[in-house]
Each structure stands twice: as structure tokens, then as C-alpha cells.
Amino acid sequence: MRKHLVLSVHGIGEQVPGTTVDALTGTAREQMDLKGPVTNTTVMLADKEHEDDGQLDLYPCHMRRIQQTDDTELVFAEAHWADLSRAPSGVLATLLDLMRLVLGLGYLALENVENNGIPRGAAVRWMVPWFVWVFYAVIAPINLFLFICAAALAVDPMVYDLNVAPWRGPAYLTSLGVGLAILGRVIAAHSESFLARSFARSFGWFAVFTALFGTVFLVAPDWIESLFAGVSGCADPLISLLGDMPALSCYVSSVTLFLKSVWVFAVGLLIALVVVSVRGALRDFGQKRSIYLAICAAMLLLWMTFSVGFWWVFKQVATSIARSENIVEKAALIRFLDVHFADLTQTLVYSVLAMLVLGFVAAIVVVRRSQFKHVLAMDPDAPSQQDRWYGRLILNPSLNMGLFSGILILAFGVFYAVAEFVLPFVSQHLRHQSVPFDCETLVHFGLRVSCVVDTGLKAYGHGAIAVVALLGLLIVNFSDVVAMVLGVARDVIIYVTRSEWANPTDPGNPSRYVYRDRIERRFTNTVEKLLEQEGPEVARITVVSHSQGTVVARRGLQAMSHLDLPQTTLITMGSPLSHIYGQYFYEDYQFHGPRPKWLKHWHNIYRADDFVGTTVQGHGTAATNTRVRPKGHTGYWVDRNVWDVFEQRGVFKGL
């Protein structure tokens, strides 16, 4: 009996094994009026290249069989890969995954810089990697250390008294540093990706600094207090507020000041990126290939909002516990946060304002997109201006402009913070007397407008806190929905996750794509194993793919071009291959040269209102594009209009 092997490749999201193959089989049985029984089997396949100390890496391949004619059989199977990026479960896991997602955007920025045709000597080729590295290797580890030490401040006197002996605080820092340094080394040794390894290594080095700080404070407390007093703010009035725990207070205050300095550096680097990129960004803005600037701005904006919101929640929880125990006056953490929270609130105002601007722009895009829905369904060979500006929601040029506005808002906030820190010293030097920082100081330097704007924004500090609190409430109450959205974003990010800093597409470079290689190997391994299992009776292969699965399928087939496969048809639905991957990561998603001789047909099906996929053209694709009725990005597998295209193209015509 001759066999027609139909392989489904799912797209982004938390896909359950067997879902797509069941949808494909069920719809085929209905549309093709097949009467025979369906046989369900599951085969466990092994990825031999990803064995861990002899432990096989197994994954399921769900198969469904149904007889088409007396001498032909349809064998439906599935290439499943969603288990390589599982969605989080629970509120805490969702929150942590959200933070990892913001950091993970850095991989997209790196990929865009390396693979979109930017000249090798361009400044952005080293500026963007440094910007991303600062987030992973400095900002994220410092926030973690601050949380650990803030937790230490919280236990005194709420849980455990660290003031019984003067050596307890320094000893805590020393032991904490030693333990975390070992942990960081272990994590770094087992991290496959470049940025995760960078985080672990920096985490370990911060732990070493913590241990040294605690040791020196234990041996010579007077010397280290005097050293840090003028640098980190450990002198009065902070020491008087936190005198109960001088070691921890000096450490946390010093690290806090360092974190503020790193934020100034990160925003300054982002502004420098704007300066060197503005010419290219403004040129053909609606169809540009560079999105690293928008991604870097999104990283800065989102991380700032979430981290400041976290510290605000932390302060409220600590204050509530202290009040319930009637120890507010003794709680060092409360007094410490009171000293620094004014700066956090100011930062929160600017970041929330930038997010509101972005949300307003996004709302306009959504509304205008619905208004121009009929225009977006025009001939794809003659795209309109509406299609350029409203056709796609992902990586939309209008949203890019909103992010640029956010950059300017954050730049002003950083400028004011720097002025607040520097100008009093300048004024003191000019007047030979101490001048406190206030609006008059700014007016003295001709910055009256800055003073008025900042004063006006600070008046909405409570409103900014309310916005962040609302976002947090939504995350807590709809963690399942948030986790699903995060799963979609994570599937895209892991596809470009690297093992080293260097560009993996450069010949001879040790860097590789950690998860993309495994995902595409899942596809090629499934095809090869099924052909071995089904034998020479397989006369035809049809690969039906959706969303990101279309990228997996096309690259997988390209990797198998040297093999002698049966006649193969590729079907892509809702594909981002040309207008996302081919547009923004150009060099690594081309298929020039002769197409495999066994790849007979490539049919691409899309919808005019699909926010991810559209036509597939250029890049050596030679695909036939067919538009079906508007119905968004999902549901292609069971859409009768899609199956009408299958019938027109003879996809399931008898062997």
C-alpha cells in the first residue's frame, strides 16, 4: 500500500502534543469525506545530539492513520517542539518569567544588528551588545543582590536580631557572598546560553565583592565606614537612620548608588544609539530593517517599570508587617526604603508616562487597522500606505515611533536626575557655599523649563504607582493568560538565543543557536525516523506548517537538501518568514541557490488581517501565495477556506 506522509509543524504558543495533528486529521476526514477508522499511535523519538551523560532526550511524535483509497493510506504525524519553552505555572513563576522575557529581548537586538546588513565597522555593532550585556551582567544581578540584602534588613528585628553582636552583620555578608559565589559558578558552568552565562558569572563576581566587603568590615569597620561615607551616602543622615546594622546599610546604600550610576550609563548609551542611528531610522521608516533601537528602548522601559514597581510592592509589604508587629521605628528596612523611595517614585513617573504614550499609539494602530481592514485586503503586489503602517501589529513602525518617544521621556528623567546630583556641587564651587538642590538651583543655570516639567510630573507620582499596581493586579489575577502570552513571546526569543557573543552565522565562529538547532533537529529527525519506519511505501510528503513552524519547516527542509526524499509539498500558513524573519534578520533567512529537487511545490496561505503572517516572497522562496478570508492568526488548521485551497492545489490528490 502506498502512503502519503502528512507532517504538521505547530507555531508559537503553549501547544499541547497531538493538538495540531488531531485538528489536521479531523478536518481531513470531514472535508475529504473519508469513512475509514482513524488509528492513533505515539512514537517516542530520541535527539541523539542532545544526550546528557548518556541520558536520552526523548520527545513524542503523535501519529494518526486513515485509509484514503483501497491502495493508499494517509499517515498524519506531528513535529512537536513547544516543550522546549514551557509556559510558567503560578503567579510567582509568571512574574519571574516576565523579567526573563524582558531581558531575553536582548537576543532579538543582537540578531537584528548582526543579520540585517549593517556594515561591519558600524558603531552599533559594538554599542548594542554592550547595552544588552549591561542589562544581563550588571543591572539584573545588582537588583537580585539588593533584594537579598533588603530581605536581610527585613529580618531585623522582625525575625532574627542581627544586633546582638557587632560581628553578625559583616559575618552575614561574608558567608552570603561565599555561598552565592559558589552558586554563581555552578550556574555559569551549566548555562548553555551566552546571556544566562554572563548573568551567572557577574552574579558570582558580585558575590565575591560582597564577601570581601563583609570581611573588611569585620576586620576594620572604622576604615570601611569612612571610605564609603563620602561615596555611597553611608554618612549622616543615613547612618543615623540605619545605625542598627552599619555593615548591611553601607553595603546596600553603596550598591544602590552604583545601580543608579549604571542606569544613567544605560540610558546614555541608548541616547547615543539614537544619535548614531537617527539617519537610518528616518530613511524609509515604514519598511526599515533595523529594529534594535526599538527593542533596546523596550528593554529599558519595561525593566525600569517592573523593577521599580517590585520595590514599591516590597516596601508596602515590609511596612505592613512592621506595623502589625508594632516595630516600625526599629525596622531598618523601612527607614532605608523611605530614604531612597523618592528617587524610585520619580523614576516610576517617567517610565509609566513612556508606557502610556506607547499604549496610546498602540490603541491608535488597532483602531485604524480595523478601519482600513478592507484596504488591507487589497492585491498584495501593490501594498498601500495603510498596509505599511497598520497591516502588522508586530514590529509596527508606529509602535517604533512610540518607543522613540519613550526614549526621549526617559532621557529627560535621567538628565534631571543627573542635574539634581551634580549641580549643587557646581553651585557650591561657584559660590563657595553650600547650596541645596531645588528649583532655584536649576533656574540659576538657565533650566527653568526642566524644573517646571519635573515638578509637574512629580505631582502625578501616586497616579504612576496606581498604574503599576493595576498592572500587577492584572498579572496576579490573570496569571494564566499572562503565562500564555509569555509563552508566545518566549518561543520567538528562544529561536535566536545564542551560546556565545559572536555571530553564529560567521564562518568558524564557536557560537551557535542553542534552541533553534534543537527545534530544527526535531523536524529533520522526525522526517528521517518516519521514513525509516514507514519504508519505501511513502510516495509523497506534505509538510503543513503554521506561524513560526513555517520557519522551522523551511529551514529544516533546506538542511535536508542533500538527502533523496520523496516528492514533497510545503504548505505555510500565517508565515512570518518574509516580513519578520526575512525583514529584520535578513542574512540568516535566505534560500538562494537551487531548491531541493524533491521540493515540488510551496503553497503559502495567509489572511489580510493576520497580525503575524502575510505573503512569502523573495529570499529565494518561489512560493505561490493565496489569500483567504480575514479571521486573524489562528484557526488555519480547521478553516474550510484553507481546505478549499488545498483542494484547488491538489494537495491530497490521489497518489
UniProtKB/TrEMBL annotation:
Residues that span the membrane, as ranges: 130-155, 167-187, 199-220, 262-282, 291-314, 348-367, 398-419, 464-489
Gene3D superfamilies: alpha/beta hydrolase
InterPro entries: AB_hydrolase_fold
Record flagged with keyword Membrane: yes
Keyword Transmembrane helix: yes
Keyword terms, alphabetized: Membrane, Transmembrane, Transmembrane helix
Protein name stated in the entry: Uncharacterized protein
Taxonomy of the source species: Bacteria, Pseudomonadati, Pseudomonadota, Alphaproteobacteria, Rhodobacterales
